[in-house]
Design brief:
Elements (H helix, E strand, L loop, with lengths): L1 E9 L6 H7 L4 E8 L6 H7 L3 E4 L5 H11 L6 E4 L4 E2 L2 H13 L5 E12 L2 E3 L7 E7 L3 E3 L8 E3 L3 E4 L4 E5 L3 H23 L10 H12 L8 H13 L6 H40 L1
Parallel strand pairs: 1-2, 1-4, 2-3, 6-11, 6-12
Antiparallel strand pairs: 4-8, 5-12, 6-7, 6-8, 9-10
Length: 287
């Protein structure tokens, strides 16, 4: 068993939590489940499987996870960022354990990997389905970027090493839950974009591929015409990156992820600008 503590954020994750925790049962010496008010059996299942369940109110992902980093009493050499709908495979566990031992005392302070992503029970092998992040970092050497949306794991010092083995990511809840969740995500992304417009930076010390993707997002995507850019992003991922090869599930995934969600972010940006402009004009008229 490796010297690592997993922090898992939960809220009504009864359908996911058992498989998630079992996937790291022989890998993590400790698991902390940071729960934000589950009304189902999430906490009961987690406790039965040996996790330390800590209740804490949720605001946004980065704040919640960093609260766990700072307050869960982590004493292990490494910390794992794991979502309830993610699973570590035996190959990932074995490779990470070997890598952590090799780099226990040098400046490799994080381990980055990509996922095999599943949507509506089908693996997405093409298009824009690649999920990449720093999953492991040395305790005290990393945390989550303080953003409301699209928050990367950042290293306070040192650099990450990448592995080719892939973890599993199952987006297995129904479409109603998916749409509700992404509606909230769109609001958070809109707020992050408004911060960027106001001069906030977007570059952080993380995996270089993630940094390049973030730069393209703000330097290329957000400079394209509003609303039209969502359609272009869908066309790029679904046709040019062969997302159509993943069948009907691939179409649904890319429609929602690449077009609908991005269009909704633009709509919320537009609504905000119109509301703020209208309020400014109203106040000016009253003077």
């Amino acid at each position: 068993m490796a010297d690592v503590t997993a922090i898992v954020l939960t809220c009504n994750e009864e359908a996911n939590i058992e498989a998630c925790l079992q996937s790291v049962a022989g890998f993590c010496s400790r698991v902390v489940v940071l729960d934000s008010g589950s009304a189902d059996r999430t906490c009961e299942i987690a406790e039965r499987l040996g996790a330390d369940v800590i209740p804490h109110p949720y605001t946004y992902y980065a704040e919640q996870y960093n609260w766990g980093v700072d307050n869960a009493g982590i004493s292990t050499k490494w910390t794992l960022r794991l979502d309830a709908d993610e699973r570590f495979t035996p190959a990932v566990c074995a490779r990470c354990e070997k890598l952590m031992a090799e780099h226990a005392d040098d400046d490799i302070n994080g381990i980055v990997m990509e996922s095999d992503f599943f949507f509506l029970d089908r693996q997405m092998k093409h298009g824009g389905s690649k999920k990449r992040k720093i999953m492991l970092f040395k305790t005290g050497k990393g945390r989550i970027e303080d953003r409301r949306r699209d928050a990367h794991t950042i290293l306070l010092e040192g650099r990450p090493a990448a592995i080719k083995e892939r973890y599993l990511h199952f987006d297995c809840k129904d479409l109603t839950t998916y749409i509700d969740r992404y509606n909230k995500y769109a609001t958070r992304e809109m707020l992050d974009y408004l911060d960027y417009e106001s001069g906030a930076g977007f570059d952080v010390k993380t995996d270089e591929q993630l940094r390049k993707h973030r730069r393209k997002k703000f330097k290329i995507y957000y400079r394209a015409p509003m609303f039209f850019r969502a359609w272009l992003w869908f066309v790029y991922n679904y046709y040019f990156r062969l997302g159509f090869l993943d069948g009907r599930e691939g179409y649904l995934y890319h429609y929602f992820e690449s077009y609908w969600y991005r269009f909704l972010v633009d709509a919320k940006i537009y609504e905000h600008r119109k509301t703020v402009r209208g309020e400014f004009e109203r106040r000016a008229a009253e003077k």
